[in-house]
């Protein structure tokens, strides 16, 4: 399925969405398509909003942000997000804030259809004072009081993976983040794959499969779909772009110009990748194959 | 040999790490301190990043906590479920490094907002994993440059609890971790006595007056103040040539 | 470390132990050494007691069994266990019984030092009537009542793996069972490895590492250490022995004769393996290598 | 063509599976039924084993639920945490197969003890995953040979709840799954009406008298009783030649 079709079908105005990936495997391709299709009023959930949600927020797609760490890793603040919070530009957004553990716990509960997840967290922190959805629960065995957070069950989860077959059986290596939990928690799952491989490749290493195809609704083939994020074994993170984003996002006009050139100004990800071909080449991963294992019996 | 305040802070933090300890590492100075300790006196220090990399052995300076260099050649890469549940909450983390836009008298840290939460004068990134590291790690080390603004008597928002409002409060709340053990600034090193930040050593060339001028309360001072040892030539060589050759953090 | 040293140091009379492995990777080598060292009063926990705990129970090592399915998979009952329950031979044992999900939840809680784990289970079942440690908890968000089981934190977990380095960084493929949870839940961890590999092999595929070395207390090299259970990629399950066990365990004298020959009658696992060499050869796995992945950047 | 009762039960169970359904498979007859359905009308049936194998494609008959043949060439192998939390409790399982030493009028199953729990006349294996499959799978199919002893009016111990003591009770207890949908015995097939087991078809050559003689209560019988279709030649060929060539289960 094309990314345009996948977003058209599975991301609607007002939906709760999760585009996950902790630094690694962030689907900028999906976010750009959401911006191009001018989705509005999204409830955008992610541990680290990162540039990807800074762009969605600055483009006016987001009504509410649910998150745990909102910065440009190693390069300062997310200015489009700060403009929305501090100056209501392009419009005000609501925020709902946890810590990483809280967000991990929310998706873990969502994946397994528990209504909440218990964790030893938040004691003494002011976070529960500003987020009434961080509550307490008493252990029925020890009487201890623990924190509890509610399940997060997005309408749609978008997960970029290194390889998948046509049915969406998806394999990831390197940082795994909360992608498995996000996929199982969601009503609809879009898998975006760096590479579409034969089912036999998947079956040759079943422990590597993080998401089974039968819970997947759309499979999109999108090489270089994470840039400026990265895909281990395919291309490195574009750290220079992350640093450059600081100045781009700081200035509303430059932010708009960026969208005009790299989002609205391209038809799709392959157009973007073609325009970025030299950079792609520079970022291409070195070869570090794993020692294989034997699945015979 | 001259050195920067950052280099001194890295060396001082590195010396606080014992061999074999399991540390939750942050990017920047904590990462440099851990990797310096590994090359000096603590070859068996275990480095864990909240991104999921365990026993990382990066061959370049990681720019973010999710840098691919932390994955290649690491001992284990696991999900964030595992990191937060089995490693951190599971009581497997000896030392957590934290930073903060504000730190107060009782070691509470703020990385959420300056000013009011609903109408902040500055919106900061938020907790990330800091809140749970502060609660669950066996001890916490803080590295932060010191100023009256960033060391107020009471933080605007407690993102990551230290000793809250004084001794005993952590135990009352049943917090498993030991709380802040040390704060390393550009002027000196602090320990905690009765849950209160207490100056224990001054960096070479720094004075108690300077310390007092850059802290927001009448700071407690240990009976005996040591001189923080200056970084050695070998420490500086490792920091400059091996760990941060592009001088991104030092 | 030798198995004799590992068991000598980390399994004591009265300890709560877990030897995990769901059909796959069951450390019979460890169980036989526990029998040889005549450990007594163990609280033996495992989802599926299997032949391995049938042997421990029949040998008189176990005071209490904590489990969820006690049968000889595909071949009938565990007669030594039934003799203990029904006839108190060699002595009575206590049982504490859950379902698989309950045992998985108990170890999951134990691994993450939660005092309990919530699950949607046991409604309408009689299991909570005979096990007061299956309780209820109310969701602080929805008010729903869920089941809760207490954490299981054994003194020692014994996990057989396909490969580990000298520090105990351990990799498993094929069925993963609850081995990770058992290891993280335990105070002491014994890793038994089919193969000790160079650290570089482990580092070549870090996603495959299930248990990090720094939580491991003893590493034992024990090829063929699972027989009659199996190790994917090394040797097949000895299904004939599982079937034969039916008759062996049914008869107390034959059970004793088995222990005399194969447990007390051998010095250690390598002695056992040498005695079983032809069978080992017959069971040796075919070659089915996985497609490698690239960890470069 | 002659066939055994087991072969008929396998064929009848296979026909109850729709293409694309996600099934939690047990060893023995359920495994044969699922694999027969895949080769006949349901090529996209997803087979999941509680051991962690998803989309298994075994090239020999698995003897146990943890057979290595279920791993080699499967689509995914995951931990038992995932199987029970994300697959089963996560609502991803359409059909669960169960067996039982006893099944009663309301489809409750016993695999724990015959007699008193504390002094059982026979100690059975226990729940395994059966209790949660009965509670959480969207529907449950039961395959069990029928006798007065194994089909009592009330089981000695409810390991895996069916409709408990009648209609509506599952909803009151907030049980997510739909409960038993069918029971396939050596004599006929039963559905559930108002939560009660109801004879819906008789196998060729079996009579209602025979059914009554082998069940522990005054069994409910549907207004219209069909004949269970006999297994076809093709079904029998697949079962005998491809699925169970050693005739372990048939």
Task: Note down, in words, how this protein is organized.
- Chain A is an alpha/beta fold and 297 residues long.
- In chain A, 34% of the residues lie in helices and 20% in strands.
- The longest helix of chain A is centred in the last third of the chain and has 13 residues, at 252-264.
- In chain B, the strands form four sheets. Chain B has an eight-stranded mixed sheet with strand order 2-1-5-10-11-12-13-14, sandwiched between helices. A two-stranded antiparallel sheet of chain B has the order 3-4.
- In chain B, strand 13 (196-202), helix 6 and strand 14 form a beta-alpha-beta unit.
- Chain B has 250 residues and is an alpha/beta fold.
- The longest helix of chain B has 11 residues, at 5-15.
- Chain B has one domain (5-243): 3-Layer(aba) Sandwich (Glutaconate Coenzyme A-transferase), CATH 3.40.1080.
- Chains in contact: A-B, A-C, A-D, B-C, C-D.
- Chains A and B meet through helix 4 and helix 5 of A and helix 3 and helix 4 of B.
Secondary structure blueprint with pairings:
The complex is a heterotetramer, with two copies of chain A (297 residues) and two copies of chain B (250 residues).
Chain A: H1 3-10, E1 16-19, H2 28-36, E2 42-45, H3 50-58, E3 62-67, H4 79-87, E4 94-97, H5 100-111, E5 116-119, H6 127-130, E6 135-138, E7 145-150, E8 156-164, E9 170-171, H7 179-185, E10 188-196, H8 199-203, E11 209-211, E12 218-221, H9 239-250, H10 252-264, H11 269-275, H12 277-283
Parallel strand pairs in A: 1-2, 1-8, 2-3, 3-4, 8-10, 10-12
Antiparallel strand pairs in A: 5-7, 6-7, 8-9, 9-11
Chain B: H1 5-15, E1 22-24, H2 29-39, E2 46-48, E3 53-54, E4 76-77, H3 80-89, E5 95-98, E6 102-103, E7 109-110, E8 113-115, E9 120-123, H4 130-136, E10 139-143, H5 169-172, E11 180-184, E12 188-193, E13 196-202, H6 208-213, E14 220-227, H7 233-243
Parallel strand pairs in B: 1-2, 1-5, 5-10, 10-11, 13-14
Antiparallel strand pairs in B: 3-4, 6-7, 8-9, 11-12, 12-13
């Amino acid at each position: 399925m094309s990314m345009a079709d996948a977003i058209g079908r599975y991301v609607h105005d007002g939906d709760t969405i999760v585009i996950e990936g902790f630094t690694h495997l962030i689907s900028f391709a999906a976010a750009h398509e959401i911006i191009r299709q001018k989705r509005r009023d999204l409830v955008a959930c992610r541990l680290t909003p990162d540039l990807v949600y800074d762009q969605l927020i600055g483009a006016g797609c987001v009504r509410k942000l649910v998150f745990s760490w909102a910065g440009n890793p190693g390069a300062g603040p997310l200015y489009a997000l700060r403009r929305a919070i501090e100056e209501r530009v392009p419009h005000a957004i609501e925020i709902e804030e946890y810590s990483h553990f809280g967000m991990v716990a929310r998706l873990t509960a969502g994946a397994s259809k528990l209504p909440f997840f218990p964790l030893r967290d938040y004691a003494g922190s002011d976070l529960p004072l500003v987020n009434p959805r961080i509550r307490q629960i008493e252990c029925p065995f020890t009487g201890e009081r623990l924190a509890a957070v509610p399940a997060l069950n997005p309408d749609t989860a978008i997960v970029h993976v290194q390889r998948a077959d046509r049915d969406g059986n998806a394999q990831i290596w390197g940082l795994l983040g909360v992608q498995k939990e996000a996929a199982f928690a969601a009503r609809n799952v879009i898998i975006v794959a760096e590479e579409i491989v034969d089912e036999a490749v998947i079956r040759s290493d079943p422990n590597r499969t993080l998401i089974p195809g039968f819970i997947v609704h759309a499979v999109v083939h999108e090489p270089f779909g994470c840039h400026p994020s990265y895909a281990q074994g395919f291309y490195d993170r574009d750290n220079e772009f992350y640093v450059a984003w600081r100045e781009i996002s700081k200035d509303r006009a430059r932010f708009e110009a960026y969208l005009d050139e790299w989002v609205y100004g391209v038809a799709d990800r392959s157009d973007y990748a073609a325009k970025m071909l030299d950079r792609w080449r520079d970022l291409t991963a070195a070869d570090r194959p794993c020692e294989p294992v034997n699945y015979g019996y | 040999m001259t050195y920067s305040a950052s280099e001194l802070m890295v060396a001082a933090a590195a010396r606080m790490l014992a061999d074999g300890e399991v540390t939750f590492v942050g990017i920047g100075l904590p990462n440099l301190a851990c990797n310096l300790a590994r090359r000096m006196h603590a070859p068996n220090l275990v480095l864990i990043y909240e991104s999921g990399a365990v026993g990382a052995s990066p061959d370049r300076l990681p720019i973010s906590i999710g840098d691919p260099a932390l994955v290649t050649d690491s001992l284990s890469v696991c999900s964030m479920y595992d990191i937060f549940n089995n490693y951190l909450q599971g009581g497997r983390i000896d030392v957590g490094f934290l930073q903060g836009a504000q730190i107060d008298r009782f070691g509470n840290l703020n990385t959420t907002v300056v000013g009011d939460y609903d109408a902040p004068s500055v919106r900061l990134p938020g907790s990330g994993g800091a809140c749970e590291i502060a609660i669950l790690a066996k001890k916490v080390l803080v590295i932060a440059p010191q100023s009256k603004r960033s060391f107020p008597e009471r933080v605007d928002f407690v993102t990551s609890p230290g000793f809250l409002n004084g001794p005993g409060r952590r135990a009352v709340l049943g917090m498993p971790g030991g709380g802040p053990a040390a704060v390393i600034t550009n002027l000196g090193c602090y320990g905690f006595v009765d849950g209160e930040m207490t100056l224990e050593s001054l960096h070479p060339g720094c004075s108690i007056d300077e310390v007092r001028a850059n802290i927001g309360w009448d700071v407690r001072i240990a009976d005996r103040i040591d001189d923080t040892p200056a970084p050695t030539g070998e420490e500086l060589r490792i920091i400059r040539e091996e760990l941060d050759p592009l001088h991104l953090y030092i």
